[in-house]
């Protein structure tokens, strides 16, 4: 008869790992230890951000996610067209929808001083998030 869940020892192991992980995170700002001294003996400073920059960066992140989803939808649509499962009217509607969505992305990028290239995150050795 198959077991009804993970063994109790495994659950305890996972619970202990979670407890250790969350014990590393302070619950309140006042519990944060002072920053370590740098090599020169000066205290490292926390990063201060300008609210305008934070807003723009958040918009950039949201637009990056939307652009990724838009490109995935576009690929899926092209795949469906290649499969031949759509009527000509459906293909036309799908094409128009994707063009409008692309234009809206351009408008949103313009509004926040971004380009579609700005939305392409560099993932280091993995390359970029969005295809060229």
TrEMBL record:
It comes from the Bacteria. It holds the Pfam family GvpK. Keywords: Gas vesicle. The keyword Oxidoreductase does not apply. It is found in: Gas vesicle. Belongs to the gas vesicle GvpK family. This is Gas vesicle protein K. It comes from Streptomyces ossamyceticus.
